[in-house]
Amino acid sequence: MTDTHCPYCGLQCAMTLTGDSAADLTVTPRRFPTNRGGLCQKGWTSAELLRHPGRLTTPLVRKAGELIETSWDEALDLVADTMRQVQDDHGRDAVALFGGGGLTNEKAYQLGKFARVALRTSQIDYNGRWCMSSAAAAGIRCFGLDRGMPFPVTDLGSAHAVLLLGANPAETMPPFLGHLVTSAEAGGLMVADPRLTPTAARALEGGGLHLQLRPGTDAALALGMLHLAVVERHVDRDYIAARTSGWDELWPTVAQWTPDRAERVTGVAAATMRRAVELLARARDTERGAYVLSASGGEQHATGTDTVSAYIALALGLGLPGQRGSGFGTITGQGNGQGGREHGQKADQLPGYRKIADPVARAHVAGVWGIDPDDLPGPGRSAFELLDALGTDAGPRLLMVHGSNPVVSAPHAGRVRERLAALDLLVVCDFVLSETAAMADVVLPVLQWAEEEGTMTNLDGRVLRRRAALAPAGLARSELEVWHDLAVRLGQPAERFPTDPRVVFDELRRASAGGPADYSAITWERIDAGEHLHWPCPLDRPQGTPRLFLDGFAFPDGRARFSAVDQTGPAEPVDGHYPLIGTTGRVLAHYQSGAQTRLVPELAASSGGMFVQVHPETADRAGLGDGALADVVSRRGRTRATVRCDADMRLDTVFLPFHWSGDGTANHLTNPVLDPTSRMPEFKACAVRLEVAS
Asked: Which segments of 27-155 does DSSP mark as H helices, in order?
């Protein structure tokens, strides 16, 4: 029996694995604060992927157009030789790396080190740029520090009012709903979402609220609610005066967001907004807990940082953040979405959540790595900018991908496929032949979750242990071994890139010491002994920090910042040719691009195929009915999907899940315009039309 955690979402549910081989391995839930003994359908079936016949176990190299099995030495020699040649011909930044939010902390750390030390390239980013970057940027802007939930998720269990903005945990992380039972039963669960999702339906069942806003109007909703809080005397003036700054700069904008104006822009009735504010204020005043939580629905926009800043302003106005029993948080989606963004995968970061352009940060990390700080590259391109530059005269010529499937998950996916095809060499490390791996010149088989040791950091900053229950399948290797072998081939000393994850974690601890995400007092031994440790956990505060900001926010003056933001709306307005708003999201059975979950028969059967959810009247105007095959068309491409009519949908909105590939790739439609601060693409709103499939 092996105690570990689920390989999927950021809740990181605890489970026990029993069995001696992949063929007989079984999964049972384990009681733990985050999941309290629960698992979702994805967790229950997670062992199925370990025994899937399509599991990659041997390196593959493309010869005469076909991927052919080869040896590790041949594959790694090809990769290292091409890396060296490409950099000799085109410069250090001609080689790029693309990581993932599902990598362990050890691998996220070592990937960043491999890029900056072995390759000395600035061209590294990861798919977490598309999940949490706007929330992270807003947290740093307003609180001085980003940790998705700055309190244990268990604190939500006693709250009587919880406002979820763009979150659908009933499908994306079902055990999370267990923490919302009190608020739901008290009539205080509120969900802002363009769709009547299962989460919104649960809120209504308990007497709560569904704020069915127009996609891309989240900031207007937050500012309208803050206006109501002011005029109806629900703001906490003492808190604003004692613990914040910037209110006077924001108020002139808030003053203009009258209830009538906010209703016209968002489509949410002023009375519903008023009731939501009242519920939050009442729970706060009776010390029964009030929380505002955001997720990707409001964050995945070209104005996502400003939108989350508006959500934070609402929470600050009500006096919630940094208080016991109340607060503001963001819901991290990917399995290691929190830890993955702390230790160096992002283009502008070094371990410990340090900025790569900071001379002090560079000196500290270079000292741990045993190199000259001047040898560290500067910031590189963000995720979509990196992919969009591939194969161009000024862009990378070789890309190595880890734990990501951008052919399906990236915005403007058709463009991304074209750029990947233009590379001199595409290398993909994966354990299934994803759509991106199928395009690669070299495919390197790596370990699955139940075959590796390491740590993960869940959505509330709790550091967890991943434990191996199985020996590696076939010739599969850890990425730590892959980077070690490549680094040695590139002239690095062997000891600089250890392959033991425990040794890598100990180095990560030293590299993170003194940084915002300080792991220096966290050890595997402490976690294995059952300690629950949240970062920051420095040597002088080894108990960790489950609740941030109780004594002050992470600015020199200890005050949180109101950011003077406004509603600007989707970057691409609807018009006569594209009259509908297309928005994307997830369904219960699938995870991310679906490369893993589509291979599990139970999950594939329960979800069916690609669909577009649309109001019956909207479908009828396009000559479509329930079950018909439609083409959804944007300025960038088209997606084929089966129509699912739903009378609860907004007339102006269609919804597409993004888990399918080929003609059913939702991201053929999405707009790659980027948030100026976070560089987040606008996944959640693009102008589309419906057509009868030809």
From this structure: 41-44, 72-90, 105-113, 133-143
